[in-house]
Each structure stands twice: as structure tokens, then as C-alpha cells.
Amino acid sequence: MMMSSSSSSSVVVRAFDENKDRFGVEDVERRCEVGPSGKLCLFTDLLGDPICRVRNSPAFLMLVAEIDEEIVGMIRGCIKTVTCGKKLSRNGKNNNQNKHLPVYTKVAYILGLRVSPSHRRMGIGLKLVTRIEEWFRETGAEYSYIATENDNYASVKLFTDKCGYSKFRTPSILVNPVFAHRLAVSGKVTVIGLGPSDAEALYRRKFSTTEFFPRDIDSVLNNKLTLGTFLAVPRGTYTPESWPGSDLFLSNPPESWAVLSVWNCNDVFKLEVRGASRVQLTLAKTSRIVDRFFPWLRIPSVPEVFSPFGLHFMYGLGGEGPRAVKMVKALCGYAHNLAKESGCGVVATEVSSGEPLKLGIPHWKKLSCAEDLWCIKRLGEDYSDGSVGDWTKSPPGLSIFVDPREF
Which Pfam families match (predicted)? Predict the structure, then answer.
């Protein structure tokens, strides 16, 4: 436990207690989500579970800050092992068999930092970050990172100016609405659902050297929130009945293919857009009505996002070949239809800003974020530089693996 003095009372930072802190935490969340007047704002309903966004991680902790037994802030953190680079492995029998192997590191992730508006500028945010970093170090994490909006100047200033973080990666969050009509999936593509073991084999063989790839990918794929992994191949190459398994598939793959998995955020939290004008609400409702009664028009209708709605998150997106972008587009259409069946309002994903397959991901610019900001910090100088040196100074790769457990 860490205590420090404020202008009037001591600020106590301690572990979150599910039995007594839930309502206090929810109250702070509500007060922190008051958007500017006259502008659209996104609100999150954690469905009565303040740690829902970290509880699927290998290790997690939530801290609260209180003054005179009143909760005035909170922070969440989780720890996992991920790929931070790659090294060349030399096969002793045949040097032509050289291949790259992943280099792993233990990394911590901070999310959900909140300070009550009535208690800001008292150093409470800094105290929460400092305390959770102590737990990161005690647990052996070598790096800590956070994701924040590029224009959230208060958050960026706290982490870069006061906490020693540096700007690291700028992935794109791509969001597409779920329409009242189904999307057509190209007839030139066959979509095959993979079981968790087949999906794991494919991901480990093809994407384990991708930055931030989780070493416990099997836990992610076997989690009940993963609705499935889907592979797109040219029609006529494989069918669900003739699928030989990932090992045989990768030993002789088709010219082009793509893969992605779907995570069910709908059972973790709900979102809601507030602040819409009557005109906006009317136009959105009209688009849905027309789409529902005339689906053959394929109108890009606005879903009911002005009341609580769910989303599906697409992760593990990858592929190869000259038609991989088209394969990705087909998979996104398939994922859209899956979300429609589940009653979700949007489908989202997050990819590196330089991801070549990004062109195949349908999205609305107004709903998306072109540059999400990830900041990183090395937690200790006594760690070995290993095979990749200091990760915080490494250049970005083309792709990045975004863990759905942290979205």
C-alpha cells in the first residue's frame, strides 16, 4: 500500500476490492465520461464488472485511489509475454534452412486510468501509475506500455513528461457499422472455420515473429470469447470437407490466402454514442428503416448506436499472396454477417498504420481512429539487452498483433 499527502487528506492507493468498491468505481467512471456539450461522445458500460477488460489476461491487477474512504481514481494493469523482435536460427544440417524465430519479453499494459474530475491536478494519476509500475517490476515485466488517443493531451503529457514513457507505435483503429442487410462474400473465395489447435498451429508458424504476438496464443484462441478463426482461400482449392489441417496447408499453400479471428466484446462491455442531435437521430433511424425493408438496395445504414450496443473485434489478421487484400475483404464481410446474427452494432479491428492488408478492411472514417498512440517505457536498466537490444528504440515493423484481451 502506498500513501501520500494531498492538500487536505491522505491519498491511499490499494488493491480493488470487488465486494465493496464496485459502486464507487462505477461512480468515478460515470463522472469521467461527461463529454463536451453538443458533441458526440462514446460511453462504456462495463456491465457491473470493473475488471472485465483485464480479467482474461495471464496476470492482472486493479488499484483504486481513495481519500477519506471515497474512491477518487483507479487504474488497471495486466502482464503477458509477447514477441519483441526476431532472431535468425541456423539449421546445423543445412544452412539453407535458416528461419527467423521470435524473441519474447514480459510486457505490462496499463489501461483504464481514471481520476475523478473533482480531484484532478493533485498528483493522483501519477501515484496510481507509479504504484502499478511497482507491481509490474515485482512480477518481472521488462516493459510497460499504454494506448491513448493522440489528441488526449493530458494523458500523453502525464505519461511522456512525468512517467518517462516515449511515443512508440501509432496503429489504426478501424470500425465498420453492422448494417441491417447482410454483406455479400465474394463467390471466388471459400471461407473455412478452423478449430483452436489448427488456428494455433497456423498463427505460430506464420505470425509468431510479429510484434506483440502473445506467447499464450493458445489461451486466446481457446477462450470462450473467441468465436472462431476463419481462413479465406481461392474457391476450388480447399473446402471445409477437404481441409487437410494447418501443417499440410502451410507445406503447400495456395497462391493467396488470409486469416482472422473474432473476439466477442459484446459479452464483456457495451458502448453507447451520446450527444447526437435530433436531426442525426432521425437520419440514422430513417437509414435503418429503409435498409430493413429494402435490403436489396444495400444502403449503408447507421446502426442503433445511440443506445447500448455490442461489438465484435477482429484480431490475428494476416495473409499472403497477390490476392490477400481481397481475401481479407471477404473475411471482413463474413465477420460482419456473424456480428449481425449476434445483434452487434459495429465490427472493429486495430492494425499497424503500415499494414499492407489494411486496404481490404472496410471501415467508416468517422467511426475510426487513423492514429491510436502507444507509448512504452523500459521498467529497469538491469535487464539484459538480449537479441533485439532496447525494444523502446526499435523501428516499427509492417504488422502488429493486437491482443483482443486488451481492446
Answer: Acetyltransf_1 (PF00583)
Given a contact cutoff of 8 angstroms between Cβ atoms, the answer to whether 402 and 315 are in contact is: yes
Domain tally for the chain? Answer: 2
The mean pLDDT value of the chain amounts to: 89
Q: What is the average per-residue pLDDT within 316-330? A: 97
d(CA 105, CA 111): 19
Residue 288: inside a domain, yes or no? yes
Q: Rounded to a whole number, what is the distance in angstroms from the first to the last CA of the chain?
A: 28
Under 8 Å CB-to-CB from 384, ≥6 apart: which residues?
Answer: none
Same domain (yes/no): 150, 101: yes
What is the spatial distance between Cα 407 and Cα 17, in angstroms, rounded to a whole number?
23
| Domain assignment of residue 339, given as a range | 174-360
Shared domain check, 345 and 201 = yes
Q: Determine the Cα–Cα distance for residues 348 and 294; give it in Å rounded to an integer.
A: 26
CATH code for the domain in which residue 85 is found: 3.40.630.30
State whether 179 and 165 are in the same domain.
Answer: no
- Report which of 139, 17, 121, 111 is spatially closest to residue 69, judged by C-alpha positions: 17
The predicted-structure confidence for 101-118, as pLDDT tens digits, reads as follows 999 999 999 999 999 988
Nearest to 319 by CA among 207, 164, 180, 214: 207
Same domain, 54 and 141: yes
pLDDT of residue 400: 96
Looking at residue 214, its pLDDT comes to 97
Q: Are 164 and 193 in the same domain?
A: no
Inform me whether the pLDDT recorded for 222 exceeds 50: yes
Q: Cα dist. 123→5, 198, 243 in Å?
A: 10, 49, 57
- pLDDT tens for 230-289 read 999 999 999 999 999 999 999 999 999 999 999 999 999 998 887 778 888 888 888 888
Separation of alpha carbons 154 and 384, rounded Å: 33
Predicted model pTM:
0.91
Measure Cα distances from 156 to 40, 75, 145, 189, 376 in Å. 22, 16, 12, 43, 11
On whether both 186 and 245 belong to a single domain, the answer is: yes
For residue 212, what is the domain's CATH number? 3.40.630
Residues 322, 179 within the same domain = yes
Please name which of 21, 108, 38, 135 lies closest in space to residue 72, comparing C-alpha atoms: 21
Residues 150, 223 within the same domain: no
